[in-house]
TrEMBL record, chain A:
Residues 64-156 form the Cytochrome oxidase subunit II copper A binding domain. It comes from the Bacteria. It is found in: Cell envelope. The chain crosses the membrane at residues 9-32. One of its GO terms (cellular component) is membrane. This is Cytochrome aa3 subunit 2. Keywords: Copper, Membrane, Metal-binding, Transmembrane, Transmembrane helix. InterPro entries: Ba3_CcO_II_C (IPR034214), CcO_II-like_C (IPR002429), Copper_CuA (IPR001505), Cupredoxin (IPR008972), NosZ/Cyto_c_oxidase_sub2 (IPR051403). One of its GO terms (molecular function) is cytochrome-c oxidase activity. It catalyses: 4 Fe(II)-[cytochrome c] + O2 + 8 H(+)(in) = 4 Fe(III)-[cytochrome c] + 2 H2O + 4 H(+)(out). It comes from Geobacillus thermopakistaniensis (strain MAS1). Subunits I and II form the functional core of the enzyme complex. Electrons originating in cytochrome c are transferred via heme a and Cu(A) to the binuclear center formed by heme a3 and Cu(B).
UniProtKB/TrEMBL annotation, chain B:
It comes from the Bacteria. GO terms for molecular function: cytochrome-c oxidase activity; heme binding. It comes from Geobacillus proteiniphilus. This is B(O/a)3-type cytochrome-c oxidase subunit 1. One of its GO terms (biological process) is aerobic respiration. It is a multi-pass membrane protein. Keywords: Electron transport, Heme, Iron, Membrane, Metal-binding, Respiratory chain, Transmembrane, Transmembrane helix, Transport. It is found in: Membrane. Residues 14-485 form the Cytochrome oxidase subunit I profile domain. The keyword Transport applies. GO terms for cellular component: membrane.
Amino acid sequence: MHIHKYEKIWLAFGIGCLIVFLTVVGVSAFAAGQQPPSCLTTIDPEKVDSTPPFDHPGLVKKGDKEYELNIVVAAFSFTPNAIEIPKGAKVTINVTSKDVIHGFEIPGTNVNMMVEPGYVNSLTTTFDKPGEYTILCNEYCGAGHHMMTARIKVVE
Amino acid sequence: MAQPLEKVDRRDAKLALAHLFVAFTALALGGFAGLLQTLVRSGKFELPAGISYYTILTTHGVLLGLVLTTFFIIGFQFAAVSRTTGALSDGSRRTGWVGFWLMTIGTAMSAFFILTGKASVLYTFYAPLQAHAGFYIGLALVVVGSWVSGFAMFAHYARWRKTHRGQVSPLLAFMSVTNMVLWLVCTLGVAATVVFQLIPWSLGLTDRVNVLLSRTLFWYFGHPLVYFWLLPAYMVWYAVIPKVIGGKMFSDSLARLAFILFLLFSIPVGFHHQLLEPGISPFWKYVQVVLTFMVIIPSLMTAFAMFATFESYGRSQGATGLFGWLRKLPWSDARFFAPFVGMLFFIPAGTGGIINASHQLNQVVHNTIWVTGHFHLTVATTVVLTFFGASYWLIPHLTGRVMTKAMNRLAIIQTIVWAVGMTFMSGSMHFAGLLGAPRRSAFSTYGNSPQALEWIPYQIAQAVGGTILFIGIILILVIVINLAFFAPKGETEFPVAEAAAPYERAALALENWKLWIGLVVALILIAYTVPIIDIIQNAPPGSKGYKLW
């Protein structure tokens, strides 16, 4: 098949960029551990309230400046919905849903994950800046979807 | 004496027009729903009579994302196949009408349950939100109808090849067949979840549904869906626009190769819509991210071909200097201008797509209104402006009329209105999304959250853009109605470009469907077998249905 010389240059440049790009993405995923939230733990969505750690949702201290934040999500609320976190804390957030699919997002941070019934999802983040943060649901879940919110206060 | 124009058979024209009629009706209703959404989200307007924002949102998504696109595409492709490979056989045409009525009845059925508030589940209908069974059955009929029409096109194409042994098929026919193969393979996924999971579950025959499996089957369909929208626009770009401007197609075989690459790499990639989900291992997500990015190659080929066509034409008209050829292009011809503006918008649109599908960057924008901004550039600008541009010759060709100068001028204005409206709306969606504003949400300040208050100016800009776009919809409807019923009688060309160089033998090899479909299946099996076995074997207890609206 005849390919024009300029097109060869154009495609070589494009494909070259693509290889570099995918290598950067791959190295940062597998070597640096920058993977999207992909927790594989399952849970019975109808027994969330009696399954640890979601039977006692909230912030749990795990070590020096290390915390676990377990949140139960259901239409149309987050439990707990007012959380205080010390500044600089490294927090692993675990979430699960009791009913339909929800989203878990903290605008202004990179905290963003899907919450699906039957699965726990999880990510770790560090709260470096003090102030008030909003948790909101970013996956349509019904009539009260846009009312679904909670607060995190990062304190000194 | 001028040669008589090659025309689409009159009976085939009727079939194509029926599809376009439904498509533009969907545009009118779905566009109005879109206007209401942007007004609600500005915070300055509330829907009357307790109508839910989410009912309107479902209407908008289903009518524009599924109905407008599918009907326009199938109608356009019937016309393209008939124009380039001759009138359909009576059998194929009848099959086409069966497909049309199945799709139309399915659409009416789903629309009924949406508008009566029984199916406010948005056009992605994620379980375990459970709509009325009639909504799912309607959608299944739309899909089955589109298959029936696809088979009518395949049969016609096969007949042409039998009577033209050793010849390369006309480009538009080849491309239509490629797009329908893509459609058939990808809709198997959505049909599987709708027919085997959601319909029995919504009828109460089964209690519970595997949520992650259903979503995965949906997204196995959801991404190729966007290529099913895009490829007909590319057909217009590759095979029609060169003729419209008076030039030649840059390369026939490279155009075919690009389509085959789209066919191969648009399906095994659905996980890039599920990057933030539990239950899928990050390894398989990354595999599909890599496959997703392969479509950049045919996209770069398409960009090159377009601008090579434009520049070659401009230089053949005596243009000099680096950009002199730009001035030779027929800017005042809406058949060129509308698709060209669509192409320009594809530059930021494609860039946004690369961001969305990136393994890590997705987390910044996932489910924010940035994504809504993104696909309002891809489908609602690039694709839709190209469809409008095609309508300016297709509709008068099919109805035996001609577009007047006044209508052409209105079409130029329509394109500008669309570009301005979309710049406002999609631009502010992108910015608000970067600040974290969620998509698919009614107006809310999230308890006067400082973050949410920052989004309000952008939401007002969206309403301004949405209003301008609605004016654009009124303009296109005026033009389409004129072209269909009121324009002066006459003959309009269905432009089909010739290749700059004679056919190459390679083009014949590109019609080896057994090879390509085999490769498509192989890639799908590689990308999906292990994770789907995982999803089924390690499934949590299923979910019962919820009606939370």
